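Hi Y.,

Following your request, here is the sequence exactly as I used it, all 243 residues.
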Amino acid sequence: MSPPSEPGADPLLDAFLRPARTGNAFEEAVERMLQAIRLGVVPPGARLPAERDLAARLGVSRVTLREALRALQEAGYVESRRGRYGGTFVRPDPPAPGATALPTDLAAELEDTLTLRAVLETGAAGTAAGRALSPRLRRHLRARLQHCTGADPADYRRRDSRLHLAIAEATASPSLTDAVAGVRARLNALLDAIPLIPQNIEHSDEQHAAIITAILDGDPPAARAAMSEHLSGTASLLRGFLS
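Below is the corresponding structure, written out as tokens. Let me know if you'd prefer a different format.
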């Protein structure tokens, strides 16, 4: 029996499986591998590089890589095989991107939504951190964070949305809150088309805590930086699954 095909020294593969650049190593690793799979750089039936090589290419730990591979396996993109010619293989019938409820021009809608969200929510976090928040607002932000952290996956996106809206409300700008609510509705339509990944939820909980801490500490640069990193992780997953 001959060994299965697998990627060799392919410059195109190197272009996709490049090191993660932000603090969202898990999300970026998922995005990079999904892009390589969905664009046919690693075709159906082919074996992904060995874990050690793949982790080095992506610039992530073996633990993070295994979590990313597990997420792709659960989403139906790859499968693990044992034995002499074992490894991680692209499934012969990986899921098609998108869903019927998504807009026809998905790429444009995705990038427009992500750009608008980055501008609105990063600005909202910085603005909220720069205000003298009342005791009631401070309690409200802590309560929203507690309500979201460790939430049941079935209810996670609703609680996540409510936390982000609470941050917008803390700016005391009804117009900004309305704008954030509008972009969140668009975002949720996109998020509903991709799987909920436990590792991403855990990472988001940590990032939410960093955002709220920076706001309550009155540190606008830290609040903007924490929010920007958080949004970047979500963007990586959406681009990976839907682009």
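The chain has two domains: 11-90, 106-242.

Thanks again,
Q.
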